[in-house]
Design a protein that fits this description.
28 strands; about 375 residues; single chain; UDP N-Acetylglucosamine Acyltransferase, domain 1; 2 domains
Length: about 375
């Protein structure tokens, strides 16, 4: 049975306004050379999904630049391929409302034309606020075996120690993996719980019917107004995912998720899964150059960089320069950041095209990284 993908690129922008002020959540840089949407698209393409719709909202120019024709994900196709769905006005919300969507269900309402034109049997819905490498074929297989209307991918999270987004759905299921309850996460939820990863497999015809019903009733929440209201009438199941998973719901969460890549074995758990590579836009850059005084320890450094100082426990994107006598520790420096001479940086997150002049000393903390916005000179 054939499957189509639908990606929500903007839903979680408010979680990290520092990084999404001029871009979508989907196009936030991650891990030296990737964007968050790369993980979503790779999960789909690695599972044989060759038709993907991407719902946009605002600030999506960088997303357009990154995706291009989709050829880097083998999605530049005459039939199928990647479809960018432009922003829409949610006129269904009532006379005079005329607002852009703010929820997952409203986004699907605006994408109904795309969904109704699809002929595939199943549709995979996915957000861009999480990092994972999942075999969607196995999820779809279980979905079909259960004759499910909707299957939600969940993962176990210790809510006492992990930072969970307030909009996350906590899923309870029985011994047959059938969903029995859905609640929104709050601080009153304690212990190890199954949290929705917001990766959802749905039977396309059922999803069409559910969204049409939501439009007629003026519903706005997918989990509360669709899933919770129909638990006794529909076949809703969970798929338990136990692989690498990290949710980004704040700047500190983005920092912590990025730093996980430096822990032993974590990088391989995400990027080293056999037959499931993480694909991204290919850029041809010169190799990184290290001078005689350069010292690098436990760091990820992309190509096209010039390292003349000390770099420890840091993630360095393409085209970054670290000057002589400078010390960069526990930092994330995005593309084309220039660090001058004799600079000291600790727990700093710099956006693209930042210039840090000589003799500066900047420091934050892992719980509150020092953030430098795009194009800033310090």
């Amino acid at each position: 049975m054939s499957t189509v993908g639908l990606v929500f690129s903007n839903i979680h922008d408010q979680n990290i306004p520092d990084l999404t002020r001029k871009r979508t959540m989907a196009s936030v840089p991650f891990g030296c050379r990737y964007r968050l949407i790369d993980f979503t698209l790779s999960n789909m393409v690695n599972s044989g999904i060759t038709k993907v719709g991407v719902i946009t909202h605002n600030n999506y120019q960088s997303l357009l630049d990154h995706i291009g024709t989709g050829k880097d994900w083998d999605l530049a196709r005459r039939s199928g391929g990647i479809k960018l769905l432009p922003p829409f006005i949610a006129s269904y919300t009532g006379a005079g409302a005329n607002k852009l969507y703010s929820t997952r269900l409203e986004a699907m309402m605006g994408a109904m034309d795309f969904i109704s034109r699809c002929t595939e049997d199943h549709i995979v819905l996915s957000d861009c606020d999480a990092i994972s490498n999942i075999d969607l074929n196995d999820v779809i297989r279980q979905h079909k075996e259960n004759n499910a209307d909707i299957t939600i991918v969940t993962t176990k999270v210790d809510t006492d120690n992990a930072e969970i987004s307030s909009g996350s759905a906590v899923i309870t299921s029985d011994e047959n993996d059938r969903i029995s309850d859905v609640v929104h996460y709050s601080r009153r939820v304690r212990g190890i719980k199954e949290i929705s990863t917001n990766i959802i497999v749905a039977t396309r015809t059922y999803l069409q019917s559910a969204v049409s019903d939501a439009i007629s009733h003026g519903y706005t929440s997918f989990y509360s107004d669709v899933i919770d209201r129909n638990l006794l009438r529909a076949n809703y199941f969970v798929y338990h995912y136990d692989g690498f998973y990290a949710q980004i719901n704040s700047l500190a969460g983005y920092y912590a998720c990025s730093m996980k890549l430096l822990e032993p074995g974590m990088g391989n758990a995400l990027f080293g899964v056999p037959n499931r590579p993480i694909l991204t836009k290919v850029r041809n850059s010169a190799p990184t150059r290290y001078t005689g005084d350069a010292k690098v320890k436990n760091s990820l450094i992309a190509d096209g960089c010039l390292i003349e100082g000390v770099v420890e426990n840091s993630i360095i994107f393409r085209g970054v320069k670290v000057g002589k006598g400078s010390v960069v520790k526990n930092c994330i420096l995005m593309q084309d950041t220039v660090v001058g001479d004799n600079v000291t940086l600790g727990c700093v997150v710099s956006d693209k095209n930042v210039l840090i002049k000589d003799d500066r000393n900047l420091s934050g903390h892992s719980s509150l990284p020092f953030f430098i916005s795009k194009g800033t000179m310090i």
